[in-house]
Structures are given as C-alpha cells and as structure tokens.
Backbone:
C-alpha cells in the first residue's frame, strides 16, 4: 500500500492459489481516491485506473510460466507515470 501526492491510495493484494497441478501467486491492484466529507464513505474506488492494472498471476499455469508485471510499488508507480497519472488522478 502507498499514497500518491494527491493522497490517493494504491493497494496491492497478493495470495497463493492452487489449481490441479499448478500453484501460483495471484496479484490484484486497487486504487482509491480520498473523498473526505463530500461522500458517505471517505474513500471511493477508482475503477478506471484499476482496469489499467487488473489482476494476474506469478507461477506455472497450464504448464507455462506467467509473471504479473505490477507486483511492486516501483512497477506500479512506473505504470502510473506511463499512463500520465503519476499523481494517480482519474484521467
């Protein structure tokens, strides 16, 4: 989890999963904007940004190696910069 300059919250979640003969680590990236007093909930999910990261796996699935590219804060920040959302805005 980390905060952007605009106090948005980026959360990376990971967990292990097993499938028949395969084992992998699954990753999911979530983004939330702080709404404060203007909303019933203090944080609003930023679906548009979330879709740019999605979820994925690290491990062997169906006999093939797969690597999720956004499993560190540095990789997520780099992708935000590429998207022109270094401040994690909803653009």
Residues:
């Amino acid at each position: 989890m980390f905060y952007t300059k605009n106090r948005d919250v980026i959360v990376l979640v990971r967990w292990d999963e097993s499938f028949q003969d395969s084992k992998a680590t699954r990753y999911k990236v979530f983004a939330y904007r702080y709404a404060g007093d203007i909303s019933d909930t203090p944080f609003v999910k930023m679906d548009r940004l979330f879709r740019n990261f999605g979820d994925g796996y690290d491990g062997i699935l169906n006999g093939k190696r797969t690597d999720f590219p956004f499993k560190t804060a540095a990789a997520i920040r780099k992708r935000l910069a590429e998207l022109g959302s270094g401040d994690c805005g909803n653009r």
